[in-house]
TrEMBL record:
InterPro entries named among the record's database cross-references: ArchSynthase1/Queuine_TRR, TGT, TGT-like_sf, tRNA_ribo_trans-like
UniProt name for this protein: Queuine tRNA-ribosyltransferase
Organism: Geoalkalibacter subterraneus
Any GO BP: tRNA queuosine(34) biosynthetic process
Active site per database record: D94, D268
Amino acid sequence: MIPFSFDLLHQDTRTQARRGRIHTSRGKIETPIFMPVGTQATVKGLLPEALKEVGAQIILANTYHLFLRPGHQTVQDLGGLHRFMNWDRPILTDSGGFQVFSLGQLRKISEEGVLFQSHLDGSTHLLTPELATGVQEALGADIIMAFDECIAYPSPRDYVQRSTDLSARWARRCKEARREGDGSALFGIVQGGMFPDLRRKSCEDLLEIGFDGYALGGLSVGEEASVMYDVMEATLPHLPHDHPRYVMGVGTPENLIEGISRGVDMFDCVMPTRNARNGVLFTSFGRISIKQARYARDEQPVDPACGCYVCRNYSRAYLRHLYQSGEILASVLNTHHNIHYYLDLMASARSAIEANSFVEFKRDFYHQRATH
């Protein structure tokens, strides 16, 4: 079994953008990378073969949802998550902290963990750091995340400090509960709200515990993009250069470019898939809403600069027709295009970093949007 490791291959000479490679027992991951979200063991609308076609190297699944349905023991008994969903490349599992956060009044946080009511049937469950770790190990994920509390924005400083300290204690319990020798990696999650000193303290606490990688949590929770970028700039320098850095739940193509320029290696977000189902498509010149009447007779592909299967074979007029007709194929084709766009953007960013031309790449990225 190949042990988890990270190689920093190249540092852009004029920005903090990094070119790296993650090694796992199920394959390499070239970074920076975007991870399509397959919350319930499926990236909505795409077969695993289609995911591979568009260049997906790793996907994300979710502990909270799979714990409730079909149950982690069921998945384990059926051969693990990779076999269950027919995906033989790496999988990262979120610990469920964000989903528990989103339950609002249906959960109660204590030192032990989070007592919550299932959104499916109202049943009560206690999710602890030990259980969150055990569920992810039972699923057979290649990268598992420490259990944490995702802090709402805005929140008072005193609450953020208490919550961040609690997440650090939970992180230590996750590390202690981890089963050794299964080849998986455990990432710690930096919290601290929008307070730079609390973010720095969170980094120090996690580094003392020691993890295989480090993530920034608690972003894209309602703050302005400029605030998000400030938090990245205040936090990333305090994380080790020889470990992967992951910003969770982010985001727009602009967020990704800005994150890469500040030294982020990994991203995930439901944005490309959720927008696809709502008829919003990402292109080299910005977003378009395919439901608009002006596309009813438009013979052009979604993006003339895109080489994906959808843009090679279908017109905007056809995609609009599918969407307006409520056809399932609309979601399939729109999702295929959006995921391809995100992953192609990452591939282009990697090439630009290798060539020390990320500044020009970023400038051209924004110029295309401004001039269309």
